[in-house]
Amino acid sequence: MGSGIYIATSGAVAQDRALDVTANNIANASTAGYKGKRATFGQALANTRAQDAAFVGVAEVATDTSAGPIRQTDNPLDLALTGDGYFSVNTPAGVRYTRAGDFRLDNQGRLVNGAGLVARATGGGELRVPPDATDVTVGDDGRLMVGADPVGQLELVRFAPTSLTREGDNLYAASGPPIQGGPPVEIMSGALEQSNVNVVRGVIELVKVSRTYESLMKMIQGYRDMDAAAARGLGRSK
Fold first, then answer.
1. Which is nearest to 89 in space by CA: 101, 77, 80?
2. Looking at the predicted structure, is the pLDDT value of residue 233 above 80?
3. Residues ≥6 apart with Cβ < 8 Å to 126
4. pLDDT 10s digits, 24-83
5. How many CB atoms lie within 10 A of CB 177?
6. DSSP states of 84-141
7. Which of 45, 189, 228, 232 is deepest in the core (most CB within 10 A)?
8. Do 202 and 159 belong together in one domain?
């Protein structure tokens, strides 16, 4: 059997991880602002005794930061970002960042996102509108307006890609300060950035990864059968 079964097993484990990544992308294809993940493979356990053995593993699960398509909704509190900026929201774990712009007003008049997290105003704090407000809009600079009167401004930030760590619920945590200067982050009101996951490509990738995983599992079973046959032959020879 040699090291063949271990090589096949390492490949199956890597493909199982890739299967999870691809399935999660497809499941979030309709999630506003979602950025797909990409699993890349690399050699693992390179310092092995077998000269002809090369084991594989998932080297990295990276985020595809390319922009998703924009869908017009005509809801003034649906907001899409142009460029590489992020909205800031308050969470129980602290400040987090997101591209999802499906905002609304809660029963306290606060601007919250689809998950109910409160949007941060520039410099911190919350954005609130009076309970009887009817004409609520957001400008391209993030200013929340009631009629012609501004009531606050959304905190919009930009980060270097390596400064953000992906968390659940379409949120990112920052390990470094925002980028200062550069082009301003602008907002399109009445629109939502859609997921950048292409469903058709995702399904094709899912099929490809599934077939590769199945092939590797058959190889593992073949090595097991060979091992069992060798053991039976050894027993009969005694």
1. 101
2. no
3. 90, 110, 111, 118, 119, 120, 152
4. 999 999 899 999 988 776 555 554 555 555 666 665 678 888 889 999 999 999 999 988
5. 10
6. SEEEEEEETTEEEEE---B-EE-TTSBEE-TTSPEEBBTTSSB-B--TT---EEE-TT
7. 189
8. no
